[in-house]
């Protein structure tokens, strides 16, 4: 039986194969020798190291599980994180091929672009505000290499927090020029509203998510550096992408960002 269990290395390879083939795999949690969150992050780190060895450029992080409801569903009491690489960035209105994704969903987020290294053991709002060059409206395209999104916290963390692609808006805004908590968000699909939310939906304040991430990345030995992009977390319910079309996200004070699926 133990011979059939996945090691950290074999689990990482399995997820890479699923990504490359476009064929999702069964949940890995029950096939790991130890299925805790530390093991899940070790699997993620294995694939991060592999990506870097292939010449991919690390440009930031995404924060997931910022909704208390979703945390409760997965039985956790904190967010999770995944890595963002340059080749995951999609230009606004640049066609995204549905055939290149497995089971995509979209969510609206506030992105922060950091201008200073964040390397303190414990960060404050002041640290994050002082280090943030500007904010952008963003769309995260999430995907899962786990069949039918049957994920536990172990599955999603190991799978790079179920990340796929991201789209940044092109209207940089200083934090002092809009409200991180009071800004309203609306997502449209082909002019039909499919999701609404507010800045405060992200852990009460997107800065809470950013502080958490900055602290955790120092603990992990991968502190956020100048130029890093932070996707702070969803402002409203994610939406499954079932057909081609345009998704448009508007966030008060941050403008609009669009992505097109073909």
UniProtKB/TrEMBL annotation:
Keyword Cell membrane applies: no
Stored InterPro entries: Fumarylacetoacetase-like_C, Fumarylacetoacetase_C_sf, Hydratase-Decarb/MhpD_sf
Pfam families in UniProt: FAA_hydrolase
Source organism, top-level taxon: Bacteria
Residues annotated as domain Fumarylacetoacetase-like C-terminal: 77-259
Molecular function terms from GO: hydrolase activity
PANTHER family attached to this UniProt entry: 2-KETO-4-PENTENOATE HYDRATASE, ACID HYDRATASE
Protein name: Fumarylacetoacetate hydrolase family protein
Organism lineage string: Bacteria, Pseudomonadati, Pseudomonadota, Betaproteobacteria, Burkholderiales
């Amino acid at each position: 039986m133990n011979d059939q269990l996945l090691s950290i290395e074999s689990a990482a390879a399995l997820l890479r194969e699923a990504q490359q083939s476009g064929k999702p795999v069964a949940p890995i949690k029950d096939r790991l020798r130890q299925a805790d969150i530390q093991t899940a992050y070790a699997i993620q780190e294995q694939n991060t190291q592999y990506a870097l060895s292939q010449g991919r450029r690390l440009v930031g992080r995404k924060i997931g599980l910022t909704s208390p409801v979703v945390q409760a569903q997965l039985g956790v009491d904190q967010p999770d994180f995944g890595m963002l690489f340059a080749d995951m960035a999609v230009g606004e209105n640049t066609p995204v091929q549905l055939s290149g994704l497995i089971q995509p969903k979209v969510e609206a987020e506030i992105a922060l672009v950091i201008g200073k290294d964040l390397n303190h053991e414990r960060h404050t709002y002041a640290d994050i505000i002082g280090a943030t060059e500007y904010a952008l409206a963003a769309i995260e395209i999430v995907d899962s290499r786990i069949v039918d999104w049957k994920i536990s916290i172990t599955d999603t963390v190991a799978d790079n927090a179920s990340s796929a692609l991201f789209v940044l808006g092109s209207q940089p805004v200083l934090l002092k020029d809009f409200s991180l908590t009071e800004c309203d968000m609306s997502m449209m699909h082909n002019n039909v509203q499919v999701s609404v939310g507010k800045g405060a939906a992200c852990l009460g304040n997107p800065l809470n998510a950013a502080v958490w991430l900055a602290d955790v990345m120092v603990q992990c030995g991968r502190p956020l550096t100048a130029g890093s992009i932070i996707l702070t977390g969803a402002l409203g319910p994610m939406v499954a992408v079932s057909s081609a079309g345009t998704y448009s996200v508007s966030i008060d004070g941050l403008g609009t960002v669009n992505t097109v699926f073909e």
